[in-house]
Amino acid sequence: MTLADSAALGSHVIFLGFLVGIPVYGFCKGVRVYECFVKGAREGFDVAVMIIPYLVAILVVVGMFRASGGMELIAAAVPEALAGWGLSPDVLGLALMRPLSGGASLGMVGEMVARHGADSYQARLGGVICGSTETTLYVLAVYFGAVSVVKTRYALHAGLLADAAGLVASLLVCRVFFG
Amino acid sequence: MLNIVWLVLLVGSVVMALWTGTTKELVTSVTESANAAFKLALGFTGVMALWLGIMKIAEESGLVGLLTRGIAPIMRSIFPGVPDGHPALGSMAMNLVANMFGLNNAATPLGIRAMKDLDQLNSRKGTATDEMCMFLAINTSSVQLVPAGAIALLAAGGSSDPTVIVLPALIATGVSTMVGIATARILSRFRRFRVEDKGCDDHDAR
Predict the structure, then answer these.
(1) With bands split at pLDDT 50, 70 and 90, how would you rate the model's confidence at A1?
(2) Where are the domains of chain A?
(3) Which residue of B has its CA nearest to A166?
(4) pLDDT at B206
(5) How many angstroms separate the first and last alpha carbons of chain B?
């Protein structure tokens, strides 16, 4: 069994552990599990409706930015000197896209795999960059949206700085491992 | 900051679309993205309800409380503002566990639950607390142990060993998470973040 298989199996076990283990534990503790589940689940729709304005605000500007071709414009403006460090236009494009859209950044890694090969330095670097951070703006919109927080103070600063640190760490680590 | 980023993306996109001649795509994307956002939120309802239901059982059975006491020493140092035994500690722990194992479907509802628990401690609704910002910093920096999506892409592309990226990615995400925690901790002491930002003056933002 490969590492990928065991990781997938581990995830499934934990998933089912949450899903089944919690109600079984609750039943043993005398909780009326069905009634309790329904009571909690009722909030699901409210949360979904609550986050709509936040998601629309973020996804529309991200969608516009992607459609404008601005990403390519910025990425193409990278000086040659940085490319030596592995910060080629497509890597920079990926780094810029990562905090904005999870799906689009995975798509960009897919492009790197197709163009340079799955065992290439670029494809591996792309994969590491993708794994190093989350879709910051999306997480921010959903989590703060659910509690109607509009004044986010320094949350975005911290999130974006962590993204930048993830990028630098990815470049360095890939140099050491695959360089 | 979010105000500025939002406006820059909005205005910047239009300027760049004019520059690259993609105004048609830009205009189409607006309606498409707005629709996609609505569908995404509604499509989320089923999974959301499922995990909020499970969480309710975890709460009433005392499991959350048990977890809260178990991980209290670690969480107390990261979230000093959450009192001992508060359910937010338990729900945040469950969210982080789900995130570590890449259970995105479970992690988001659990994270929202954690935010609601944290909001109970919020005296100024509509404004993020230090604990919320810290929780967000940890979540946005990713704590996933195995980058399943990227590995799947490498494997699909015919890689001889797609899992070579696991250790490098783990190191990189560890660095980003630590920087996120440190930044949130340092920024919470800045005076400019203590006073309220000038938002649109909506006192009843709930």
Answers:
(1) low
(2) 1-41, 45-178
(3) B176
(4) 40
(5) 21
H/E stretch holding B106 reads helix B104-119
Tokens of A61: 């500007």
State the DSSP code for A92: H
CA distance, residue B28 to nearest chain A CA (Å): 9
Supply the pLDDT for residue A2: 67
Contact A154/B60, CB-based, under 8 Å?
A: no
Residue with tokens 């933002």: B205
CB pairs under 8 A between A and B: 394
B44 against A4, higher pLDDT: B44
Cα B149 from chain centroid? Answer: 18
A113 interaction partners in chain B (CB closer than 8 Å): 153-154, 156-157, 159
Query: Does residue B35 form part of some domain?
Result: no
The C-alpha atoms of residue B127 and residue B4 are separated, in whole angstroms, by: 17
* First vs last C-alpha separation in chain A: 28
* Cβ atoms of residues B141 and A160 within 8 Å: no
Q: Give the tokens for residue B168.
A: 């490098």
In a domain, B24, yes or no: no
Q: Does A16 touch chain B (CB under 8 A)?
A: no
Contact call for residues B154 and A113 (beta carbons, < 8 A): yes
Looking from the CA of A154 toward its CB, the CA atoms found within 13 Å total 22
Provide ipTM, 2 decimals: 0.86
Q: Is the pLDDT of residue A167 over 60?
A: yes
Give how many domains chain B has, as a whole number: 1
CA atoms within 13 Å, Cβ hemisphere of A13: 6
Q: Provide the domain limits for residue B78.
A: 42-194
Q: So what's the pLDDT on residue A90?
A: 84
Contact A128, A170 (CB under 8 A): yes
Give yes or no for residue B152 having a pLDDT over 60.
yes
Question: Do B138 and B181 touch, CB atoms closer than 8 A?
Answer: yes
- Determine the pLDDT at residue B26: 93
Residue B205: the pLDDT is 42
pLDDT in tens, A55-72: 899 999 999 998 998 888
Distance CA B148, CA B203 (A): 43
Q: How far apart are CA B32 and CA B40, in angstroms?
A: 12
